[in-house]
Each structure stands twice: as structure tokens, then as C-alpha cells.
Amino acid sequence: MKEILILGGGASGLAAAIGAAQIGGKGVRVTLVDQNPAPGKKLLATGNGRCNLDNAASSDPGRYFTASPGALAALLGGIDQADVPGWWEKLGLVTRTDEEGRLYPYSNQAADLTGLLLRWVQALGIQCRTGCRILELGQKGRRYAVQVEQNGAKQLLTADRVVCALGGSAGPQFGTGGFGPALARRCGGKCEPLYPCLTPIRCGDPALLQKLSGLRVRGTVTLLDGDKPLARESGEIQFANYGLSGICVMQLSGLLAPGRGPAKPALALDLFPGREAPALADLFARRAAGLPDPGAFWQGLLDQRLGDALWAAAGLGKAAPTGPDGWRALAALCKGWRFENPTLCGWKQAQTTGGGLSLEELEPDFQLKGCRGLYFVGETLDCAGSCGGFNLHWAFGSGLTAGRSAAKN
Ligand SMILES: Cc1cc2nc3c(=O)[nH]c(=O)nc-3n(C[C@H](O)[C@H](O)[C@H](O)COP(=O)(O)OP(=O)(O)OC[C@H]3O[C@@H](n4cnc5c(N)ncnc54)[C@H](O)[C@@H]3O)c2cc1C
After folding, report:
1. Do 242 and 339 lie in a common domain?
2. Closest C-alpha to 193, from 358, 346, 305, 11
3. Does 148 contact ligand 1 (Cβ within 6 A)?
4. Is 12 in the pocket of ligand 1 (CB under 6 A)?
5. 212, 321: one domain
6. Which has more pLDDT, 259 or 407?
7. Contact 150 CB / ligand 1 (< 6 Å)
8. What is the residue with the minimal CA distance to atom 19 of ligand 1?
9. How high is the mean pLDDT of the chain?
């Protein structure tokens, strides 16, 4: 009987274990190892407890950050063939897709998806070793040997095939502290530098942010290199005491990779994306002239705190401007409010890991080149998806592909 060890019981590990057991049947013994008390801890927190498990555009390589776009396109093609949506359907998960192509369990409950996976783990006879820390991976004869520690006692587990699904460094509160990429490096794989990805962004004057903290506004955020626009995202922008957050801001964080990001980064907020600056200046001037008193200027336009901050930043005094220049300055600021030197927040606030094991190191079935029977999947790899279900598509898809291959070959 072929023995398969799955290291890590997150999204990719669960998919690998179930995929291997489904394909291998009675011919394989699958064991899943995780240091958490139960598998799927991070999954429960995904999508704010709703689990955005996939996206209608998940095959598009342009929605992922990696240093190896060519290799990514090939691996995503392989995942397409694994038919992740069809797999979910066979597992019994009913999904719904929202207007932006994001897939959720029909019940909108991450706990339901995790619960279903754990029922399959049990039904397929997959052995779970939880509360079990993985220390090292080596070889013993022709088999792989994994040193683990459970209840203070060390032990050696051996297997014919090993799938490493140990995540990255994001969200250490869920059991991931960078052990996956470190292990990949120890196995001889080249790794791209790690960075927190899909994080809020630190930027702005602390005194200003203190006043605006907690405020949410719809608009467009542009990442600039000096004055050159690099990427633009629209949606809800959230002000925090450290900087800016919201999905559109987090999305841009993926482009701030150390060494690969812009030399002179800045963010610019457009708080009136539907109007050109001259038309906005005109609107401001006409509006001010028809109001009962100047204090009503921002009412119905923007939150008063935000309006006051823009007014001050445009250099306007207490009274409304008398000529067009003042209104033009205010409109220009509303259309391009700059926040210089944005930096990434830390691992605790990151949804995923940028960098990791280079995709060039992998066979199409996620085997590490030159190491037969040893696979790396999920967030350990140099592939970080955009917000919207791309990371879980990658995690489930790579895990499923590797698990099936491990059981077959
Ligand atoms: C708050 C939050 C919300 C998110 N929401 C979404 C979303 O809605 N949609 C989306 O697509 N993505 C989302 N993501 C990202 C997504 O959850 C991850 O990309 C995905 O879970 C990665 O799966 P993985 O299996 O590669 O790694 P993980 O899920 O991180 O699993 C790795 C596992 O390995 C175990 N492990 C690590 N080291 C050891 C060791 N030494 N010994 C034993 N066990 C070890 C860990 O305990 C962990 O269980 C979210 C992330 C966070 C943090």
C-alpha cells in the first residue's frame, strides 16, 4: 500500500488529502498532519466567515502576482483540467456567484465548507494527526522521512509521497509562520523573497488619519511611481489611524513587492471618479453660490470630516473662495489626493504571502523538479492571488492536482 503524507491541513492540504484518497482508494493510506487542534482553521476566517472560495476569472494569470508569469500560466492550465468547480459539486457543495464573479458556499458560511471537507476526510479514512508540529523532512532509504513533535515527543513518519501544504507567512495567528517556504528552501528549491500581500497600506500624516480613522468612502485609488500611474482600483476606501484599507487598497499592495515595486511609490485617491476636474470645480463654485451658508458645503457630497481635511489641504481659508482658482485647487485635490511613500502592513494583517518557492521549480503536477514524489502546493509557492477568491482557487486547485498525482504515480 502506498503511503502519502500531507503536511499542513489548510485549504491546499485538505484538497490534496481528499484528492489522493478519492483517486487512490484502498491502494493508498493518506495521513494529514497539522499543528493546529483541527484542520481548516484559516478557512473558517476566510471571506469574513463567508469563504470566498473561487472566482469566475480564476484562470486568468493576470489576477495573480508572481515572478514567473510563464510558469504560472502553465500551472493554472493544469488546475483548469483538474476541474475544481466539478470537484466541489461532487463533494456536495452548492455555491453561489455574486455580480463580481466571486463564489461562496450557498449558505454563505465558511464553517459549512470546512465542515463538509472534514466529513469527507473522515469518510475517506484519512488519518488526521493534529496538534502535531512538523520539524524536518529528509529521506530514509527510498522513502521520505518527516520528523514531527506531538505532546512533547519526537517521532519519525515515513511515506512514499509527501505533499507539503504548509502555507506561507501570512496570518501567523492561524499557524503559519513561514515554515513552508523555509522547508522548500531546505529541499533545494529557489525561493523569491517573501512579503506580506493583500494588506492594508501604511501612509499619510498620523494627525490627519487620527481625525479620519473609521471613515469609509467610495472612490478610486491609483498606485503611482512618481507621477506615472501603475494600477488603479475602485471600491470602498477605509481610513485607519495607520493609513488606508479596503479591498481596492489591499489589491494594490501586491504591487509593492520589495525589489519589484515602484521606486517612488505614492497613492492617489479620486473621490469623484464619475466627474472630470473642471466639471467638479464648476459644480463646487455653483453649489457654493446657492447655499444658505458656507457650513453646508459638504452636506450631501462627502463626510464632513473628509471634506474639512480636503478643504485645509487645498489651502483654503475659512470663507469660500471668491475666484475659480480656489475651486480648481479643491477639485484637483478631490481627484488626486496623494499619499506618499505607502508601505505594507505586517504579516498579521496580510491575507496572503507574496514570494515563496519559485514556480520554475515545479513540474506541471506540482512535484519539485528532481525530487520524485515530493510536492509543494498553495501559499508556499510564489503565487499570490488578488482579492476575490483567487487565493483559495490556487490553494484548492494546486492541492487537488498534487494529491491526485501523488496517488496515481
Ligand atoms: C483573514 C483571511 C481571510 C481570507 N479570505 C480569503 C477569501 O475569502 N478568499 C480567498 O481566496 N483567500 C482568502 N484568504 C487567503 C487564503 O485563506 C489562503 O491563501 C489559503 O488558505 C492558503 O492555503 P494553504 O493551504 O496554502 O495554507 P494555509 O491555509 O495557511 O494552511 C497551512 C497549514 O499548515 C500548517 N502548518 C504550517 N507550519 C506547520 C508546522 N511546522 N507543523 C505543522 N503544521 C504546520 C498550519 O497550521 C496551517 O493549517 C484569506 C486569508 C486570511 C488570513
Report:
1. yes
2. 358
3. no
4. yes
5. yes
6. 407
7. no
8. 391
9. 96
Domain that holds residue 148: 2-196+351-408
Q: What is the DSSP letter of 258?
A: T
Q: Please give the distance, rounded to the nearest whole angstrom, from the Cα atom of residue 8 to the centre of ligand 1.
A: 9
Q: How many structural domains are present in the chain?
A: 2
Confirm or reject: Cβ of 338 under 6 Å from ligand 1: no
CA-nearest residue, atom 6 of ligand 1: 46
Statement to judge: residues 167 and 279 lie in one domain: no
| Residue nearest atom 41 in ligand 1 by C-alpha distance | 134
From 7, 36, 42, 146, mutation site for ligand 1 pocket: most ligand atoms within 8 A of C-beta: 42
35 lines ligand 1 (CB under 6 A): yes
Q: Which residues pair with 33 in a beta bridge?
A: 7, 129
- Here the CATH number for the domain that contains residue 173 is 3.50.50.60
Q: What is the pLDDT of residue 352?
A: 97
Same-domain status, 145 and 216: no
Helix axes 324-335 and 304-313, enclosed angle (nearest 10): 120
DSSP 8-state code for residue 367: B
Looking at residue 180, what is its pLDDT? 98
At 187-222, the pLDDT tens digits run: 999 999 999 999 999 999 999 999 999 999 999 999
Q: Quote the ligand 1 centre to 379 CA distance (angstroms).
A: 7
Is residue 5 within 8 A of residue 161, CB to CB? The reply is: yes
Burial 269-296 (b: 16+ CB within 10 A, else e): bbbbeebebeebbbebbeebeeeeeeee
Is the minimum distance from the CB of 11 to ligand 1 under 6 angstroms? Answer: yes
- Nearest CA, atom 46, ligand 1: 175
pLDDT digits (tens, 9 = 90+) for 315-332: 998 888 888 999 999 999
* DSSP-based three-state secondary structure for 297: coil
pLDDT of 293: 85
Examine the domain organization and report whether 182 and 258 are in the same domain: no
